[in-house]
Amino acid sequence: MNTTHQNQSSGNVKSVRQFFWWAAGIVIPVMEKCPTEQIKYTAIGVMMFFISLLASVSFAFFLSYTFDSATLPALFGGLIWGGLIFCLDRVVLTSFRKGETGILSIALRFALVISTSFVIGEPLLLHLFRKEINLELVNKGRAVVTNARREVTARYQDETDALLNADNELQTRLDTLKNDRDAKENAVIGEVEGTAGSGKKGDGIAAKRKDAAFKEADAKYTAAKAESAEILQQNKNRLAEIRTEIENQTKLTNAAETGADGILARHEALFSIIKNNAGAATVYIPLFAILLLLETLPLTSKVIGKKGVYDNALEAVEAGQITEIQERREFERESLVRSREVQKAIAERLSVTVINGEIENLHDENEIRVARILQAEALRMTENEVFNRQAAAFETADFAGEIIVEVVGHEDFAVSLHIPKNAQKMLSLKNLSGDINKIAAAIGEKLQLSKAFSSANREISVSLPLLAQLENDCKMLLEFRPIGES
């Protein structure tokens, strides 16, 4: 029981170790033969795995900041991004081989890895400093809102001052008229009571004169007050509109600044903190350096490290594979050459067999079939050659336009067939089937064409041009057989 459990645990450990080898871009069968290199490449595989894990977490934070994504969609997007970063790093790592000296190639790989470290590290650091960044964004927002209020207020300052000055001037004028009226009212009262003016009590001439002056002053004050009240109300309404406009503009600025909390705003806030706070810089810089080192360490270890047992073993395996491929190609080429030689020898032997008419002496069915094909092909080529030679002779001969037809077994029978000039070159025996049927009917028996011969006793092909198969005398001999007889 314990042995089974130990074997299972050992198998699980081996599977995990092989996964990390694969993550490091290692050929597992080769690595199993290099025990001294296994720890190093297992560590590189672990780093590759955790880099992709950090990339997943980082991109999840990025999605949550940028798109206000919910937790599950952000995690799903983070997993996809982590897998992409893993594949990218693995391609960069596996495409580099020890001993590679191309500066441009190495520089491009490092540029790609460093860029990837920026993409991975920045969202993580933004999340790490999120409280300080939020405070910085709030302070920045307040400053922006204050500046916006100041700018809007300054925009309406001249109009506000003019309205306030007009109100002050109207109020001063009203106060002057009121004071004048009050003074004249007091004079009337003093005159009537005998405490001022003439010193005589009663409503005398002096009192009436002062009362008239009071009424005039009171009328002026009342008219000015009524006139000023409308103007003062208008100015008051306009001042209220200006204050409302200032508040609205300030609220719009505040809302816009509150919404500006995306990845770029946070990045700017973080660098503002680092710039103005040395303590934040001493935390940010080492953390970013660690993330950069973690991302570049697998490639750096391959670039600056010396060739190990695994590298030499891998080169030996690849060299063996190249040699095996070359040997296989050479074997295939030699096999092809030998098969062609054997094919040529068989063809020559079968050709001799066909020439000597010894096909029946062959025992293999395939050889007999091929020999008959060779025989048919040779006959076809010979027939074409004869036809071409006859056609050439026909073209140079002076054809009279008629063919003399005789019938085997009917020596006293002969007819002439007139051939139109435009049909002479391509006319075949098949095209003359109607004329041949008439000839068979003229003999008086139920016959059908069996064979046709030239005057040189050469059999005429039914489908080939007829005139090219005849001799210079343009004679054709027909042989008939009863209908139905094979």
Order of helices and strands: HHHHHHHHHHHHEEHEE
Q: What's the oligomerization state?
A: single chain
Termini separation? 90 Å
Structural class: alpha+beta
Helix content: over 70%
Task: Offer a concise description of the structure.
The protein has 486 residues and is α+β, with helices and mostly antiparallel strands. It is built from 13 helices and four strands.
Describe the structure.
Helix content is 73%, strand content 6%. It has 486 residues and is α+β, with helices and mostly antiparallel strands. The chain folds into four domains: 167 residues, no CATH class; 101 residues; 88 residues, no CATH class; 86 residues, Roll (Ubiquitin-like (UB roll)), CATH 3.10.20. Helix 6 packs antiparallel against helix 8, helix 7 packs antiparallel against helix 8 and helix 11 crosses helix 12. The longest helix has 55 residues. The protein is elongated, with a radius of gyration of 59 Å.
